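Propose amino acids for all 209 sites.
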C-alpha cells in the first residue's frame, strides 16, 4: 500500500522552502563560463546604477545573486578568462604608469578594475592599453578594484553557504591565475622612455601630475 504521508510531508517541505533556496545536491563542479553577453550586461547595469566602487561591488553581489549557482561560478570563470586574456607586458605597463608602480597582486587588481569599467573599455584596452586614457579621473587615487574579483564568491556564499572555489572544475578550466602565459617585458621601470613608447598618452598624463 502506498505511503501517502511521506509524499504529503515532502510536498509540505518543498512548499515551505524559502524563495531563492535550492537543492544543494545539484551543486557540481563546472568549467563553464557565464554567457559573455549576460556577463557584460550585469557589469554595464552596475555602472549605470552606481557612482563608486563600494556601491558597485554591492550592486554586483545583489545582481549575481539572482543567477543560479552554476551561473555564479560561471561569472567568476568568465572574469578569470578576461584576466588571462589581458596578462601582457603592455597592459602591465599601463598599470604601472597609472598607479605609480604595479606589483604582481597590483596587476591583478588593475585588470579587475579594467573589466569593471565595462565591455567597451575592456576591449579597447585589450587592443591598446593606452586607450585607458579615457578612464583617467583627477580625483582617482588609484586604478585597482580588488573586491571585483570576489563579488561572485560573496554572492555564491550568501545563496549557498558554500565556497565557490570548491565547485570550479580546475581539470578543465585552465585559463586562470597560475597558468598565465610567459612573456618578456617590453619596458623597464628605470627606462621611462620605454614606457612612454608603449603608452604615450598615459605617460604624458601621469608624468605631469
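Proposal:
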Amino acid at each position: 500500500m502506498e505511503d501517502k504521508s511521506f509524499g504529503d510531508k515532502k510536498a509540505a517541505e518543498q512548499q515551505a522552502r524559502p524563495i531563492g533556496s535550492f537543492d544543494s545536491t545539484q551543486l557540481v563542479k563546472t568549467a563553464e563560463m557565464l554567457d559573455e553577453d549576460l556577463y557584460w550586461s550585469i557589469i554595464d547595469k552596475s555602472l549605470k546604477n552606481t557612482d563608486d566602487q563600494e556601491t558597485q561591488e554591492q550592486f554586483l553581489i545583489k545582481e549575481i545573486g539572482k543567477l543560479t549557482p552554476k551561473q555564479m561560478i560561471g561569472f567568476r570563470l568568465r572574469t578569470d578568462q578576461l584576466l588571462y586574456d589581458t596578462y601582457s607586458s603592455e597592459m602591465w605597463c599601463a598599470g604601472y604608469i597609472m598607479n605609480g608602480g604595479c606589483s604582481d597582486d597590483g596587476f591583478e587588481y588593475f585588470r579587475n578594475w579594467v573589466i569593471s569599467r565595462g565591455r567597451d573599455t575592456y576591449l579597447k584596452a585589450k587592443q591598446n592599453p593606452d586607450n585607458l586614457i579615457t578612464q583617467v579621473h583627477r580625483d582617482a587615487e588609484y586604478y585597482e578594484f580588488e573586491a571585483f574579483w570576489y563579488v561572485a564568491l560573496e554572492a555564491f556564499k550568501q545563496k549557498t553557504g558554500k565556497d565557490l572555489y570548491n565547485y570550479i572544475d580546475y581539470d578543465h578550466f585552465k585559463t586562470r591565475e597560475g597558468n598565465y602565459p610567459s612573456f618578456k617585458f617590453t619596458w623597464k621601470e628605470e627606462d621611462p622612455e620605454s614606457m612612454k613608447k608603449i603608452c604615450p598618452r598615459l605617460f604624458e598624463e601621469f608624468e605631469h601630475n
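The chain has one domain: 30-207. DSSP finds ten helices and no strands in the chain.
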